[in-house]
Amino acid sequence: MATITSLVDTTTTTNQGKPGDTVQINGTGLATTTRVNFGSTSVTPASVSATLVTFVVPSTAPCSGQVSVSVTSSAGATSNALPFFVIATPTTTGLSVTCLSAATGGSVTLFGTNFLSGSQVGVGSVGNVAVTPTQASQVTFTAPANPGQVGTVSTQAVTITTAGGTSASGTTQIDYYLAPTITSVLPTSGTAGDEITVNGTGFVGVDSVTFTDSATATALAVFTPISDTQLVATVPGGLAAGAGTITVHTCGGNSNAQTFTII
Hints:
mainly beta
């Protein structure tokens, strides 16, 4: 009678895997095997020899959990059974942050399900990051920078790959931002309460406009976005007179410091 000694999924090199994986059944007396019993499903072997039978995990396998695997010979004799664990496909549900600086990347926590056997997180065309999740529902990783980015915002799909496969692309995304640039301010001087037009590029998702005075004290300004290349800011009070600067901040970081004089 055939005896099974081990089951090895050729993708994971363990007795765990997913539908579509090829599994090696190692043992003795396997030469007359005509079918593999994968739980209640009968599977035709892909190859048979005296010590090795291979088969493909069927699409009818359960989403996850333990399945008993045995073989049956042409004479109708069935071997012992060993357990095989079907690993569920991971899913992603969200991220701890929605955007990153293209220049630096940064720390991100990915949330979802079935992460425990995860090996890497993919960030679209930016790159892959090796991970070792300790929780089934989340993993923290450092997203790489995106130095080749051209547009102000680049949206990238975030996925995770485990023994159960790769999560669906497009369900969880993160935006990379280039830092904004100020090209001019009009007028170039003013006093508290004056409205200043700030021109530049990359004014997408602006979250603050900062005035710095001649004594390096800073104050946040009330501002109104006009377009991706222009905004209007109100000179804040409490700043010292003299030469200072204006900066604009987005998820991409701080802009250059443009000269502005407080009157």
